[in-house]
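Re: the multi-chain job from yesterday

Posting the exact lines I submitted so nobody has to dig through the queue logs.
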Amino acid sequence: MIRGIYTSASGMILNQKLMDITANNVANVSTTGFKRDVAQVESFRNMLVYRIYDKVSSPDNAIGYMSLGSDVSRIVSDFSQGLYIKTDEPLNLAIRGNGFFTVEMPNNQGTQQILYTRNGAFTLNSRGELVTLDGFYVLGQNGRIVLQSGGQVRIDEQGNVYQNGRLVDRLRVVDFQDKQLLRKVGNNLFEADALSQPIPFSGKIIQGYLEGSNVNSVQEMVNMISVLRAYEANQKAFTIQDETLQKAVNEIARK
Amino acid sequence: MMRALYSAALGMKAQQTNVDIISNNLANVNTTAFKKDKAEFKDLLYETLSRADVVAGDGKPVSLQIGHGVTISAITKSFAEGNLERTENPLDLAIQGEGFFVVSTPNGPRYTRDGSFKVSNVEGQIKLVTSDGYPVLAEGDTEIVLPETAISSITIDETGRITYKDQEGQIQDSGLKIKIVRFINPQGLLAEGKNLYNVSAASGEPVSEEEMEGQKSRILQGFLEMSNVQVVDEMVKLIIAQRAYEINSKAIQTADDMLSMANNLKR
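And the result, structure tokens for all chains:
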């Protein structure tokens, strides 16, 4: 009926999506290796509006361009560094610089799937294999990393794993040219598609530390306030248009 | 209705569990050989609103994914050694290293690092037991039984070998050695309370240190291992958890305000 009503509604729906993203960020404020999501907003495609009752149709009767709303165009992860948290656990690792640990997870087809994570909270399973806290295998250059019980584990900055002075394997830490092609799959894991080929890793591994979430609560708080206010403004615009419409329907026809 | 409500509610729930864990750590700040717990968080599944697809340079290069909150993925125990406290009591033992004592309970063997042992009197003989009365096992899974006179003169060396003085003041070798076992993944042990742990599929079977090569644990007589809880660390974690809880509750409030506005569209 009135274009503006739909425009305001699309603004409200957009702000709801932004709130969903913010809520997921604040929920993960304590998640190790979590990378916050940021939404990019774009307006709908512009449309050209014409006067329609002109006798001849010519380029002159174009009123101009207008857009009837906005939507989330992309949600990108902010891969900036999180805080380092000292834990002193020998199997807790953090990555300084870009890069991801490679993890092998069984999928429902019974095959192994390769995934990537920044969460370096690792442990050993009952066979002495290095695993994530969900039990997925952490990969080295030669596959799974098997350690023995007892004996100091030392992991150097390049990711070489030593036990009792003996080199066991080197962690498979990779980087990506375009990290925005990674997809979050939950469990602190990222999935790479065929387009994002791993490239060698140039950062450093730090043993005894974990990387905290990079969610900044002040930033998210500000986001929440601005989302709420934008939502409110859209709601006001909607209500006012509705009132105008009410006047048109109920009052103009009366006399 | 709104994902935001559920995501933030899950955030609050996870932080609540986190506070539960922190308060249990603080409650056990004086528990002998207590090992602190730590909550590990992970993000939940993502809903893909539109999938990335780059065909011939056109289309969306990035998928549109919104997450669904957070959950506690694991509670890990830190087996870092606690401080040693000198007690001068010959029946107090501390383990330096990764080992565990083995005690025999009515439900089968259990493992502990709490070495505050006592003796119980059995027909002129004394038996080494834990504070709860469970016998401590020696190599060969035998209970440790010594003559009554040994009570004040038990000596236990670093390897766990037990000697005592007999009535004539002669040092006698009891032939018993305290059993120390190790686990490939101690974090997989099940805490049962009373400072006892049970094996699980994740911890692996206990391996006696006697049969192992490499560095072994040392037993220190007259010492106890304190809890490895650091009050400062826990307080800091408590403050962070509280603030995280608070910001999640703010997110719920915001989402609720938005819903109320949506409901007020129609008056």
